[in-house]
Specification:
Radius of gyration: 24 Å
Largest sheet: 4 strands, antiparallel
Helix content: 40-55%
Number of strands: 4
Order of helices and strands: HHEEEHEH
Structural class: alpha+beta
Oligomer: single chain
């Protein structure tokens, strides 16, 4: 075989291996089954929601508009990524997760 043909075969083989590896590592975009989507819509994402309340970090019970706790930490003192997350609400499944999240935001 000529050098050019050998190089082309080796290059093609390496390309296919790379594409296969990237495809295997990429997250799947398969839609969940209809039953799974219905179950997710019925379950609340967490018991508590941490979000901005008049410029401070506050804790709400899921579904409530009244905070159960307001911290002294100003949301303006946080990195912009955290501020954006808090505007949408950060959910905590239980008190343990709530304490961990508050430590992260307020320390």
């Amino acid at each position: 075989m000529s050098k050019r043909l050998s190089f082309s075969l080796v290059f093609t083989l390496c390309f296919l291996i790379c594409v296969g590896t990237v495809s295997a590592l990429a997250p799947s975009t398969v839609a969940p089954a209809a039953g799974a989507a219905d179950a997710a819509a019925q379950e609340p994402p967490g018991r508590f929601v941490i979000r901005d309340f008049h410029g401070k970090i506050a804790v709400f019970e899921s579904g409530s508009d009244s905070p159960v706790q307001i911290t002294e930490t100003l949301t303006s003192s946080l990195p912009s990524v955290d501020t954006i997350e808090l505007k949408g609400g950060v959910y905590a499944a239980d008190e343990r997760e709530l304490r961990r999240l508050l430590e992260d935001y307020c320390s």
